[in-house]
Structure to design on (514 residues):
């Protein structure tokens, strides 16, 4: 059996992690920049069309810049609030807390805050702008359905996201890009794209024309947003977290079993949406086939992740 | 003109040499600092573990006062752990403590009253938690030692390591659980003598 030492030595693991950290920090900046520039340009354009003076543009950009800057600090709180998570103490959830404690010791990271979502769908996510301001969240379903080694595997995966600053990019995505994705999703469902799935109760009131214009704009924005989400997520990120998570908990098989259990669970997570889906350990949304879902597909196929873990 | 170019090239080479010299030196210092930090992660848990032992021994004594040898072994292992000066010594003493504790808990199995004692159960629970934490802290520590030692032994940082006396660090070795041979000395002779040679059970 290979020891951890060998794995670290042969693959140059530490270097890899530092590379990932630098890349993730850079991607966060790019994301904030693209967000301000793209959305600012669109907003200015709309402003000109509806007759606002071009002098309004600097204010638009300033407002978006401020939004991005605030997001940097507030997005973790937003992500936690949106997901309906509540913080737990060691006394309330000793088992989960101990697992997180152990893995933070094993990875040499500061102890993150621990949150629980009262939902029976098994899932987990990590968020925060850096390891010092990180939190790890597990659903009640995860705690009930996994045994200790499987839970360790999942938390190890999440701690890997924390350690290499994946959480920074992923979390800020929730607030910046997620906003666009969410609006696009909403409006496209209201108008014609999602008509098939939504039935016939379309509103034919006077607001329809404006709604249609907004929808068109958002339809253009959505692919850009999706592209950014891909940048933030990339399947590689999940594979890497699986790999370093397995290395951390020294039990790839337990992680594979956890993935099997979670993917076999039919329940979708009630409080998950397209803006937060990419945060989770496994895709929390269960409707897999629609156009938008493919566009916003955030997770590599579970079968592939399990296959790779089993091959370790 | 040609002289100027040569001078510039020489200066550039010197600058590069100095910069890489500093970078390698700092890399070594950083790696050694990480080892030190990681060690304190183990040390905290070892201290926690040692601090629980007197309480545990007292609790068990209340029910099984005549298991003197077991108590002495545990206490001796604890003393060795507290006196350990290097990671290797600490690892050895810690492994010894693990073994003696295992014996102690095996002995405790024979006393139903003790097993029902809440204080004893809490201590047992906490000690197993600490054991897990030591395992994780050890994993992190050894990873850092490996990366530091690699630096002290590979070119070009090995040259600097030699010049400035960067000694390779000791690993914190844990005995494999599977290899451990748990000896439990019961007051009465064991009812079932080992029929087959003890096989490694894992």
């Amino acid at each position: 059996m290979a020891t951890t030492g060998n794995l670290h030595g042969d693959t140059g693991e530490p270097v890899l992690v530092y590379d990932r950290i630098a890349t993730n920090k850079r991607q966060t900046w790019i994301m904030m920049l693209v967000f301000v520039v793209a959305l600012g340009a669109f907003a200015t354009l709309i402003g000109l069309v509806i007759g606002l003076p071009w002098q309004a543009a600097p204010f638009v950009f300033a407002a978006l810049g401020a939004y991005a800057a605030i997001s940097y600090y507030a997005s973790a709180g937003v992500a936690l609030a949106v997901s309906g998570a509540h913080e737990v103490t060691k006394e309330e959830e000793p088992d989960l807390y101990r697992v997180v404690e152990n893995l933070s010791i094993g990875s040499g990271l500061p102890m993150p805050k621990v949150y629980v979502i009262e939902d029976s769908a098994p899932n987990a996510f990590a968020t925060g702008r850096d390891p010092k301001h990180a939190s790890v969240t597990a659903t009640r379903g995860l705690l009930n359905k996994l045994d200790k080694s499987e839970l360790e595997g999942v938390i190890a995966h999440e701690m890997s996201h924390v350690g290499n600053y994946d959480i920074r990019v992923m979390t800020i995505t929730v607030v910046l890009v997620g906003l666009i994705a969410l609006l696009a999703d909403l409006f496209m469902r209201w108008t014609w794209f999602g008509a098939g799935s939504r039935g016939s109760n379309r509103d034919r009131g006077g607001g329809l024309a404006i709604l249609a214009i907004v929808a068109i704009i958002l339809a253009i924005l959505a692919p850009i947003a999706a592209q950014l989400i891909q940048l933030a997520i990339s399947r590689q990120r999940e594979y890497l977290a699986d790999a370093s998570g397995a290395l951390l908990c020294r039990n790839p098989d337990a992680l594979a079993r956890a993935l099997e259990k979670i993917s076999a669970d039919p329940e979708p997570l009630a409080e998950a949406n397209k803006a937060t889906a990419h945060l989770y350990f496994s895709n929390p949304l269960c409707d897999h086939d629609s156009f938008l879902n493919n566009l916003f597909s955030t997770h590599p196929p579970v079968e592939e992740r399990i296959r790779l873990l089993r091959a370790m | 003109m040609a002289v100027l170019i040569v001078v510039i090239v020489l200066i550039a080479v010197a600058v590069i040499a100095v910069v890489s010299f500093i970078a390698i030196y700092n890399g070594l210092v950083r790696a050694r600092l990480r080892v030190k930090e990681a060690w304190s992660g183990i040390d905290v848990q070892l201290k926690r573990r040692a601090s629980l032992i007197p309480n545990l021994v007292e609790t068990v004594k209340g029910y099984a006062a005549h298991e003197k040898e077991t108590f002495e072994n545990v206490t001796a292992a604890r003393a060795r752990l507290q006196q350990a000066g290097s990671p290797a010594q600490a690892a050895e003493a810690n492994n010894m403590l693990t073994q003696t504790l295992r014996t102690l808990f095996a002995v405790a199995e024979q006393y139903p009253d003790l097993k029902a004692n809440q204080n004893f159960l809490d201590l047992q629970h906490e000690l197993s938690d600490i054991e897990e934490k030591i395992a994780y802290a050890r994993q992190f520590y050894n990873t850092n030692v490996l990366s530091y030692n690699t630096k002290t032994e590979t070119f070009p940082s090995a040259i600097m390591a030699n010049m400035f006396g960067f000694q390779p660090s000791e690993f914190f070795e844990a005995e494999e659980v599977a290899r451990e041979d748990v000896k439990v000395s019961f007051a009465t002779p064991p009812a079932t003598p080992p029929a087959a040679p003890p096989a490694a059970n894992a």
Notes: The interface with chain B takes residues 4-5, 8-9, 13-14, 98, 101-103, 105-108, 248, 250 of chain A (CB under 8 Å). The longest strand of chain A covers residues 113-117.
